[in-house]
Every structure is written in structure tokens, then in C-alpha cells.
Amino acid sequence: xxxxxxxxxxxxxxxxxxxxxxxxxxxxxxxxxxxxxxxxxxxxxxxxxxxxxxxxxxxxxxxxxxxxxxxxxxxxxxxxxxxxxxxxxxxxxxxxxxxxxxxxxxxxxxxxxxxxxxxxxxxxxxxxxxxxxxxxxxxxxxxxxxxxxxxxxxxxxxxxxxxxxxxxxxxxxxxxxxxxxxxxxxxxxxxxxxxxxxxxxxxxxxxxxxxxxxxxxxxxxxxxxxxxxxxxxxxxxxxxxxxxxxxxxxxxxxxxxxxxxxxxxxxxxxxxxxxxxxxxxxxxxxxxxxxxxxxxxxxxxxxxxxxxxxxxxxxxxxxxxxxxxxxxxxxxxxxxxxxxxxxxxxxxxxxxxxxxxxxxxxxxxxxxxxxxxx
Amino acid sequence: xxxxxxxxxxxxxxxxxxxxxxxxxxxxxxxxxxxxxxxxxxxxxxxxxxxxxxxxxxxxxxxxxxxxxxxxxxxxxxxxxxxxxxxxxxxxxxxxxxxxxxxxxxxxxxxxxxxxxxxxxxxxxxxxxxxxxxxxxxxxxxxxxxxxxxxxxxxxxxxxxxxxxxxxxxxxxxxxxxxxxxxxxxxxxxxxxxxxxxxxxxxxxxxxxxxxxxxxxxxxxxxxxxxxxxxxxxxxxxxxxxxxxxxxxxxxxxxxxxxxxxxxxxxxxxxxxxxxxxxxxxxxxxxxxxxxxxxxxxxxxxxxxxxxxxxxxxxxxxxxxxxxxxxxxxxxxxxxxxxxxxxxxxxxxxxxxxxxxxxxxxxxxxxxxxxxxx
Lengths: 374, 374
Fold this sequence. Notes:
The first copy, chain A, has helices spanning 18-25, 32-42, 47-50, 60-68, 91-103, 115-119, 127-142, 160-171, 176-183, 191-201, 206-211, 226-238, 276-284, 294-300, 308-317, 321-333, 338-363; strands at residues 6-8, 11-13, 28-29, 54-58, 74-78, 107-111, 151-155, 217-222, 245-249.
């Protein structure tokens, strides 16, 4: 029996049992055969796939069938503006950029600036403030190396003349009953939140609408967002478009332990705005897999799975498998001193953030080439 | 006890008991004092108000308080594209144009091209087809003499970049519970229809958003649309804007009898596209208030309230009170021959339609000056 856990569009609670979730959600594991196929098609497998950060999928084999026959796919992902992005927020964008590079994929990025506004009980929150955050996020995303000719970013409220019309088509197939069951909504849920999933569905078939013929779509997302596509894929199918393929990631653990790196406790996460000193301080305070006493540590060794430093290296900051193996072994056997371990990670993060800032400065004034408005 | 009747946003059934509806909806009758006040402010009272086609209101006195202190109001009304407008569909636009002329009001006209698409069970209906109908309606409306500098018409799907953002703000205050009770929706209602009322609410405060200060709004509408504003007025108030004032009309009877002139039976209504011959034919077949036998007619006289010819004169085609009195007396006493009676009405309708067509031809190529897109 798996422990109690909860993964839905609005919360992640408890320790997620991923194998159980795969069965429950009706999705498939990314197995070695699929990894080999990706490698064959792309010439490479991103370490986030190789190491299982992306662990499950829907219809990836169908997508690659089409790709191998010459039908290019595009990538759609997004982020709800939430008050400053963390490095964990970058996962799907790093993946999207990699897919763009390796598969020549166009990329469409949705920033649903209305979603948090609608979901938060606080009625003083204004759409204006989420709008500003959304533009900040757009810059953070674009600076990950996207090709502006093949990448379009939009805010839902600004692109609604395109999105709303298509969302209406989706919504016709989604009854309150379907949405209530999928999202756990009740009679006290506001009607904007009830409708919202239709807006999230649109970019998964928008290229097909624009092209006047079916264009395959791949959506990298966190497992918590799968529910939107469980309902949307049926509606999209009924509209006559390809169901989007999905790649599901697990959650980057928080620095202090916990299932999902949350933006609500600033010490739990590394923000893109954090100064080098803040990064060092936060990494220093991170949870490790060391035993509680030197004696236990000597006897049992450390546990890399519990170690935020190892996990950050594995999923985000150490692409080199050999170097990663050394770090994990060092943690397991206790041969690497914990301070050194942390210093090394902090240095990698700060290097990444410095380069990212430089890139943001470079593209800041040309963000219009990325943004879609209508 | 009133007879059974039903008036809601999606249907009108039975003979509407307007006095009962006023109590039930919590609205006020347009009384002689209010008519006198309108006459005082406008220099005139439109015969549709004078003769009780507009019979009820919300907050008209508050609106006129503001107007008399120099605060101008704007007018918002609309029509869901439904496959060809009838003369009865023109009522609110004739009123809006009159309010523009007499009060210098800006006019905003919403064509919710998604509403019918969402509400109809038929899933083959496309948004593209409602879009085309919407543009046809826009021309029919604009040709009623609106000033293009003070009149803006928009389709919801084309103006969604402005509307959706504000609809989201409204929707945050409207739970499914509120909407379910107001509209009689159930779990099988689609989520686009559930959300839709938020889109209908927006133009009632949009001028205030744009002006950065409160601008009063007056909405002429059919009694069946009041429900949208029963829920929206509270949300608009919570957002800090003036609640819109409302003017409610009864329904133009159908040519063959029945509570509302419906577009679904073509013989029941005069379409703006009807040829002079069709108009004559339809008017000839219209229900009158004559008794079933010559003997009864002589003894009791006719009943103008049951006579579609009288009603069309009263509410749409005979602005002159003296001429109208003569028509109604003629019907009541049976002194006017029914053929003459009908010929006279058909001629008036055909004169109106001919002028309307001429005006459409004149403005057809400059419709862009009326349309709002974003």
C-alpha cells in the first residue's frame, strides 16, 4: 500500500509514490526502449530524461512515429506567474529549449497570468501585479537560449483574442461534472477557475488550427499538471486534432526536504534573483543524506536520495554522468566532506545564475521578438 | 395567482405576468414620475418607454441623479447572433440610438458570438458560422443611425484580449453555486456556458476601467436577460464600479400570437431580409383581435391586445400617438377593415426596411469605423 499522497493541479502533499501515480493516472513510464529511441532520433538524451526527472509520458511513441516519418512536432509548456522563479521552475523550459535544439521544434510558452489570480482566495491581488510578474518570468525563460524565430511566449490576458475563441471550442466538450471530478471543485469554486482549464488546453492544438492541418504537439510538464490534459485530450480529440503527447517530470525536492520545491518558503528554494551570498547560505543550510551521528555515518554511509545537494546535481546542475557518479558515491560513502560538497554545488549554481543574468541583460530590450499579443 | 410562465436567459415560456415578474426579480416599474423625468432630461420620451414596451428598470433614478449633476452615462446592449435579425431584435438598438441622440451617450454593443455556439447542443455548429452572422448583425445595427464616433460594436471572440481579462475579475466573485441557482445550470452544463455570464458583464463597467474613474452605464435589455445582471451587478459593485442601471422591455409578440417573437419559426417574425412581398404575406397571415364571427365582432368589438397588427404599430411602427389611437380604436370598434389595417402596417414595415437597406448600402464599406478589435 502506498503512503497517502496527493498530486493535483493545486497542491502536492505527502511523499509522491510515482509508480502508483503512473497506474492511477493511466500514464506510461519512460523506459529504456523509449530513451534509446529518443537518443536515436535526437542524437542525445537529455540527462533529465536519462536520470528519470522526466519519468512518465503519454503517447511519446506515437509522437516519435510521426517524427520519424518527417512530421515535426512543436513543444508547449508554461508557468503561472508566482512571484519570482526558482531554478526548479526552469525544468520544463530547459527541456523545451533542448527539444528545440535537437528536434528543430517550435516552442509555445503560455503564462496564464489569470490562473493564480483566480485560484487565490485573496481578492486584493490584482491582475496588474500578476501581469508584471509574468513579464519578468518571460525574460527569465527566454534567456535560457531559445531561438526567437521559433519561440513564442504569451500572457493569457494579452493573447485572449486568439486563445478565448479556441478555449470556447474546448469548453463545449467539458461539463462541470467532468471538471468537478478531475479537479475536486465544488459549488463554491469560482466560474473563472472552472473555465480556466480550457485556456490551458488551447496551445496544445493551436498550431494545428493555424496550419489548417494537424501538427503534433509535445507537452513537458510536472505530474501535478497532468489532470488538465487528462480532460483536455478528449476534448481536443473530439475537435479533430491530434491529442498532445505529454512528458511528466517528478518534482525537484526542496532544499530542506519535502516533495516539491515551493516558492512559498524562500529558504526552500534558489531564486533566479538570489545573490551569490544568498545561494551559498541556502545551499549551506540544505538537507543532506548524512546520518545523525558520525558513528552511524561511518557504519551506514550517507543517503544520496535524501540529499538535496545530490539531487540538485543530478537533476539540474551536473550534466556529466561521471562527475555526478563521483558526487553520489562521495555522499554514500562519506568520502566527500559535506562542506566541500555544498561549496561545489553553490559554485555551479552561481555560475549558472551569472550567465543567465548576462543573457537576460543581452535580450532584455528585444523581448518583443518573443512575445505574442493579439 | 399568476399563470405558469418562465422567463430566463435561455427561454421564455407561457404568458409572462409582468407585474409578478417585477416583484420576483426585485425590479421597479417605470412609472409616470420616471417618464416625466426622462422627458424633462431628454426633451422627449421615446414611445417605446411611453407605451410601456420598456416597463421596468433598476436604478434609473440614480442614473438620472448623476446625469442631472453633469455625469454622462453610456449605453450598453447586445445581441447573440442567431441567423438573421427580425424587427423585434432591433428594439434595444433603436432605444440605444435614441439615448445616444437625446443624452449624448456613447454606445457599446456586444455581439457574443460564442454564446449560442456554447448553448446549442449541436456540436457541428462552428464558431466560424456564428462569426459571419455576427458581422451581418453588426451592419444591421449600425444602419439604425448610430454615430460612428460614439458607437463601438465588437464580437466577443475578436475583442477577447480586452474582455477576457475583465471577465476574469468578475468571475472571481461568482461561484458555481450562484450561477447554478441563477441560470438553472446543472453538472451537465459545459464550462464555457458557466463562464459566459462574466463576458456579458464586462461592457457594463468597461468604460470605467478605461477612464480610470466611474462612468455610469445604462443597459436596455429584454426581461429574459435580467438574470445576467442580477448576478453581475453584485460582482461589479465589489470591483468598485457603479452598478449598471437597467431598462427592461417586454417581448414583441409574434405575428401569430405567442409571448416572444422567435427567430426559430420564420413565419412568426419579420426579418430584415424579407422582401416586400414576404412582408405583405406574413402581415396578412398575422393574428388579429377580431372575434370569430361577424355577429360577435359587432357585439363585442375587436381586442387590440390580441392583435399583432395593433401591437406592431404600438411598439415599433407608429410613433404618432394620434394615429396609433385611431388604429386601436378602429380595431376595437371594428370600424377599420382588417385588410386595410394590415396593408397599412405592411407598407410601414416595407418603408422602414427599404430605408434600412439603403443605409446599410451606404455604410457597408465603412463598418470598420464601428468595429472594435484587439
